[in-house]
Amino acid sequence: MKRSNDPVFWSLFGAGGMLAALIGPALVLVTGIAVPLGFLVSQDLLKYQNMLGFAHHWLGKIVIFAIIALFLWHAALRIFHMLHDFGIHAGTGAKLVCFGLPLLCTIASAWWLLGIGF
Amino acid sequence: MSAQMDKRRPYMRSMSGWWRRDPYFIRYMAMEATSVLVAVYAVILLVGLYRLSQGEADYNEWLASLKNGGSVFFHFLIFLVFVYHTWSWFKIMPKTMPAIYMGGKKLPQPAITWTGVAVALVLNLLVIAILIWVKP
Amino acid sequence: MADTMKTIEIEVLRYRPEQDKEPFYQTYKVPFTDDWSVLQGLQYIKDDLDGTLSFRWSCRMAICGSCGMMVDGKPRLACRTFLRNYYPKKLRIGPLEHFPIERDLVVQVEDFIKKLEGIKPYIIPKEPRKLEQGEYLQTPEQLERYLQFSGCINCMLCYAACPQYGLDSRFTGPGILALMHRYNTDSRDGGRAERMELGHSEEGFWGCTAVAYCSEVCPKDVDPANAINQNKMNSAVDYFLRFVAPRGAGK
Asked: Does the global pTM surpass 0.90?
C-alpha cells in the first residue's frame, strides 16, 4: 500500500490555518479597513517608508513571508479537497494548480523580499 | 442457488449534490470554502509586496486602491470569513488531538474549542493593540 | 392501554431487483403509541400491511448494530429512533447511504466486512505468551486509552454519514479506522506496525477530511473522527522522521 504524501501538505495546511486563526482577522481589519478608512490605527502605518523599513529587516521579511506563504498553503490543501468533494476529478491537473500556484507565489515572495534588500 | 444470485442487482445511488442533503454538510463546505478568501487575501498582500519591490510610486498605487469603497467592503467580507475560519478551526481542533486528562478527568472537547477561541481573540486584539501603539 | 393510538404516514424506499427497475417510495399509514420505535413501525408494516418489505433487525435495543437506516435523511438505528418525534409529519425511511442497495432497506455490507478483517481486529501479542504467565494486567489509565473506541457495534451509521467513503469506497472508513486505533492503543497489543501500513496511506487516515459527521451519528459515542484525526499528527511526524528514527514502520 502506497504511503500518502499528504503529511507535507497537511502540515503546511495546519500551520497556515493556525496562523490565520490567531492573527488573520486583525490583519484584515487593519490593512483592509482601518488604514484605508483612517480609524483606530495611524494612517501612516502602511506608508511606503514604513513598509520598506519593515521589509528591510530580517524579522519583517520572515513575518511577511510567513503570512503570505502559509495562508496560501493552507488554502492549497483545502481547495484540493474541495474539488474532490464537489465531484471534480482531483487528478494531476488539479494537483498542479492547487499546489503549483502556491509554490510559484512562495518563490516569488521570497524573491521580491530578497530583492528589496536589507 | 445461482438462479437466485442472478436476480441480484445492487443499486448504487448517486453522490451528486451530497453536501446539500444536510445542514451539517453545508457547514462543512462553508468551513472548507473559507480557504478561498484566505488565499485571496494572501494574494492581495502578495501584490502589495510586489508593488513594494517596484518602488514608491507603484506601491502608493496599490495602497490607494485599498481606499476604494469596493475594496473596503470586500475586506469586510474577508474579515467575516476569517472570523468564521477561526471559529470553525477551533471547533474541529479537539477531533485532531488525543484526549487530555486534567486531575484524572477527561477534558471535554468544547473546553478545547473555547480555550482556542479565547487565545485567538486575545492574540488578534494584541496584534491590533501593537499596530495602534506602533507610531510610525 | 392508556395511550391513544395515533397514525403516522411512513414513506419507505422499496427496491425489488427482480421486478423494480429502480427504487421508489411507498407510503404506509401506521398506527402507533408514543413508546413505538421506528423499528416497531416497520415491523407493523411487515406483519400487518405488506409482508414483502425487507429490513435487517435483531436485538431491538441498540447493541447488535443491525437496524441502521436513513430516517428523514439521517443515519439512525431504527430501534433507537421514535415515531413520536416525527409525528404529525410524514416520515421517510431509506437504506443506509453510500452502500449498494440489495433489496428495500437492506444494503450490501461485503465491503465493510472485508475491510474489518483487513485491519487485524484482535490483540496481536507483543511477544509469544505462555499460559503460565496468566492474564494481562491493565491499569484503569491503560484501559481508558482505548475503552471509548472499543464501543463500536459495527452498525455502519458512520459509513452512511461519511461523504469521503461515499465519494470513494477505497477509503477504509470511520468505524474500521477507529477500531484499528482501539487495537493500536491497547497496552496488550504489539501489532501497531503491521496495521500502520494501511493507516499511513490515502485509504487510511489520510483519506479523512475531518467532516466529523461520523462522530455526530455514532449511537455509541465512539468518536471515530477523533480516532482518525489524532493519528494524523503521529503519521506526519513518522513520515518526516522515518529515515532518521522510525517509530512503528510504514513503508
From this structure: yes
